[in-house]
Specification:
This protein is an alpha+beta fold. The chain has two domains: 1-39; 45-188, Immunoglobulin-like (Sandwich), CATH 2.60.40.200. The chain has one helix at 2-32; strands at 45-52, 59-67, 70-78, 83-90, 126-132, 138-144, 159-163, 180-188. Strands 5-4-7-8-1-2-3-6 form an eight-stranded antiparallel beta sheet, with no helix packed on it. The chain is globular. The N and C termini lie far apart (77 Å).
């Protein structure tokens, strides 16, 4: 009988040792698979590089920078017709269609009506209008609420769209801003290259 207890005791000790070794290996594997166990720094900057849709010549960049509870949006765009152009974050980071319809509609995770960027109840993606000068260049520098880099309002992996016409800030669900003249996917920016 004593021998049975010894074997059971030795067996349990061996099993415990194997479990500990297995847990250690699993942790090592997790660390080696992209640093899952390591703390990742919070995203503080993102960028979309705009490319023209078919038949257009619009280029530019849009940067997003975290500022406490808000995000600063800076756009620098060329190749536009003079005047105002609707400017939105759309739901999919897919600019593959010639007319950028692959980017879907305005990013609207909270199911709100379309409105201007200063309106409380609006699409997260409603950025309003950007105004091009006589040479076709437009610059915008605004600080907005609602946009985030994490959670349901995260714009990472979505698309910035510039439209052919002005957004009237009323017509549902698009603001009657016309076709899409440029599209760019929003990605994490290198901290040392984005101002």
């Amino acid at each position: 009988m004593k021998r049975n207890y010894v074997f059971v005791s030795v067996g349990l000790t061996a099993l415990a040792g194997l479990a500990a070794l297995s847990a250690s290996n699993a942790q090592t594997q997790m660390q080696h698979r992209g640093g899952v166990m390591a703390m990742q720094p919070a995203v503080t900057k993102a960028i979309a590089v705009l490319h023209p849709t078919q038949g257009n010549n619009v280029h530019g960049t849009v940067t997003f920078t975290r500022l406490a509870s808000r995000v600063r949006v800076v756009a620098d765009i060329t190749g536009l017709t003079p005047g105002q152009h609707g400017f939105h974050v759309h739901e999919f980071g897919d600019c593959s269609a010639p007319d950028a319809t692959s980017a879907g509609g305005h990013f609207n995770p909270m199911g709100q009506p379309h409105a201007g960027p200063d309106t409380t109840m609006r699409h997260v993606g409603d950025l309003g209008n950007i105004t091009a000068d006589a040479s076709g260049r437009a610059r915008l520098d605004v600080v907005l609420p609602l946009i985030t880099f994490e959670g349901p309002n995260s714009v990472l992996g979505r698309a910035v769209i510039v439209h052919a016409k002005a957004d009237d800030l009323r017509t549902q669900p698009t603001g009657d801003a016309g076709g899409r003249v440029a599209c760019g996917v929003i990605g994490i920016a290198r901290r040392d290259t984005v101002r």
